Amino acid sequence: MIDGFVIPLLKIVIVLNATLVGVTYMVLLERKVIAWAQSRLGPMRVGPHGILQPIADAVKLMLKEDITPARADKWVFTVAPIISMVPALIVYAVIPFGPEVSLFGRQVTLYITDINVGLLYIVSVASVGVYGIILAGYASNSKFPLLASLRASAQLISYEVAVTLTLVSVVLMSGTLSMVGIVRAQESAHLWFAFAQPLAFGIFVIGSLAETNRAPFDLPEAEQELTGGFHTEYSGMRFALFFLAEYANMIVVSSVATTLFFGGWLRPFPNWAALSFLDFIPSWTWFLIKSFVFLYFFVWVRATLPRYRYDQLMRLGWKLLIPLAIANLVLTGIIRVALL
Amino acid sequence: MITPTHYMLLSAALFIIGVIGVMVRRNIIIIFMSIELILNAVNINLIAYSYQLQDVIGQVFAVFVIAVAAAEAAVGLGIILAFYRNKETVNIDEMNLMRW
Amino acid sequence: MGEAIAFYTLAAFILGFAVLVITTKDTVHSVLFLVLDFLFVAALYVMLNAPFLAAIQVLVYAGGIVVLYLFVVMLVNLKRLPEAFQDPNRHGRIGLILSVAVLLELAAIAALGVGSVAPVRTAARALPVTGNTEQVGWMLYTSYLIPFEIASMLLLVAMIGAIVLAKREL
C-alpha cells in the first residue's frame, strides 16, 4: 500500500512543486543574469536583491483581469494554455533524479517511474505540446498570434526531427530506451555520451534551443515583428501558464540533456576511486548541478546572440542539422556494428 | 472478464463511426479524419489479438498501418491543398470534375 | 474487475470522441476531438501491454499526422461553410442506415461467431529478446524486413508526392 501508492504520490507532489518553484526562480535567474550581462542591476526592490520577485510576479499575474477577446473561440482559447502546460509537467514522470537510495529505513527510487519506453514517452509527450501553441494562435482570432503560431509550430516540427534523430544515436549507444538504463549504460561504458557523441550533443543543444523557442531562435515571440507572439491576446493567469510552460520546457530539456549526455546523477569520473571523496555529495545534487549549468547556458545564449531570420532558421534546420544528424546516426550504427 | 470479443465490438463500432463519417459528411478534411478513425479501429483489433495470442506480430502489423496512415495523410492533404487553391472549396460534392 | 472498468471507460471515451469528430460543425474542434480520441486509443494500447505502440501512436498520430490536419484546416480559410452545397444525388440517410446495418452484422458475428469457435491458443513465439520494444524491433528487422523496407519506400514516395502536389511551382 505504502510502496505502491503513497510514495509515488509523494514523489509526484515533490517533483511538481519543485518544478514550479524552479520555474519561477528560473525567471528571476534569467532577469538577473541578463541584467548583469547588460551592466544593470535587474529586479532589486522585492526582498534583498529581488529574491522575492517571483512571488510578487505570481501574485500580480493571478490578480490581473482575465480577458477573452470577443471574437475568440472561447473553448479552444481556454484549453490552449492547459494543453501547453500539461505535457511540460508530465514529462518529469520518467526523468531519473538519482538511483535507488535508502531513506528513513526504506528503499526509495529517486524517480517517479522507470518505463521501458521512457525516452520515446518524452519525445511523444513533447510532440503533443505543439498543440497549445497552434490552438492559442488560432483561437485568438487575430492575425499576429496566428502568424506567430504558424511560425512556432513549423519551427517546432522541423527541429523536433533533428533532435529526435540525435536521441536515436544515443539509444544506439545505450541499447535501451529506459532513462535509468541510459544512465547505467554511461556508468558501465565509463563515458558520458556527450564525449562519445559530440556531434549529436551539439545538434541536440541547438535543436533544443529552437524547440523551447529561446533566443537566438525566439522568432515566434519576436516582439518587433509580431507584437509578442502567439500569446498576444492572453492575459492574467492564462498568459502565466504559457510562460510557465516555456520555462518548464527549458527545465525538461536540461534534465533530458543531463540524463542522456552528462551521465544523469553520476558524479564526474564515477569509476575513479581517487575521486570517491566526492560521494558525500548526494546523487540528486549532481543531477541538479548539471541541469543548472544547462539552464545557465540557455540564459547566457539569450544575452549574447542576436536573433536569426526565419528563412535562415529553416535552412539551418532542414539543410544542415537534419543531414548532419542522419550522418551521425549512420556513422554511430556502423561503428557499433564494427565494434560488436 | 474482458475477452477479445469486447475489443472486436469496440473496433467494429469505431470502424462504423468512421464509415458513417465518410458517407455522411461533405467536408473532405472530416472525411480524411474518419479514415484515420477506421485505421485506428483496425489497429485496436490487431493489438487486442496480439495481446490475446501473446504474439508480437499484431503490433508489427499495426506499425505498418501507422506508416501507411502517415503516407495517406501527407498525400491526401497535399491533394486537398492543391484542389483548394484552384476551386476554393473543400466540399466533395463540388469535386465533380476529373480535371480543371 | 479493474480491467473491465478501465476497458469500459476507455471504450466510452474512444467512441464518444469519435462521434464528436464526425458530428462537430467547427473543423478545428473536430481535429481536437480526433487528438483526444487518439490519446485514449494510446491508453488502450498501454492496457493491452503494447507500450511501444502507444508511444508511437502518440508520436506519429497525435504529434505528427493531426498537426498536419490542423495546418491544412488553418490554411484552408473558407469563405463559405464547407457543407453548404449538397449534391442532390447524394443519399446520406441511406448510407447511415447501411452503416448501422453493417455494425449490427459485425456485432452479431463477433458475439455469436466467436463463442462457437474454440479460441486459438498458440504458444508464445520464442524470441531471443525480452521487452516489448525489443520484440517489435526484432520482428521488424528479421521476418518482416522486406515489408519494412517497402513501408519506408512508401513513406519516401508519399513525401515527394506531397511536396509536388502542394508546392505552387516547382
Task: Describe the structure in your own words.
Chain A is mostly helical and 340 residues long. Chain A has one domain. In chain A, 67% of the residues lie in helices and 2% in strands. Chain A is built from 13 helices and 2 strands. In chain A, strand 1 (100-103) and strand 2 form a beta hairpin. In chain A, helix 3 runs antiparallel to helix 5. The longest helix of chain A has 36 residues, at 2-37. Chain A is globular, with a radius of gyration of 21 Å. With 100 residues, chain B is mainly α. Chain B has a domain at 26-91: Helix Hairpins (Orthogonal Bundle). In chain B, helix 1 (4-24) packs antiparallel against helix 2 (28-52). The N and C termini of chain B lie far apart (57 Å). Chain C has 170 residues and is mostly helical. Chain C folds into 2 domains: 1-78, Four Helix Bundle (Hemerythrin (Met), subunit A); 128-170. Chain C is 74% helix and 0% strand. In chain C, helix 1 runs antiparallel to helix 2 and helix 2 runs antiparallel to helix 3. The longest helix of chain C has 25 residues, at 51-75. Chains in contact: A-C, B-C. At the B-C interface, helix 1, helix 2 and helix 3 of B face helix 1, helix 2, helix 3, helix 4 and helix 5 of C.
In short:
The complex is a heterotrimer of chains A (340), B (100) and C (170). Chain A is mainly α. Chain A is built from 13 helices and 2 strands.
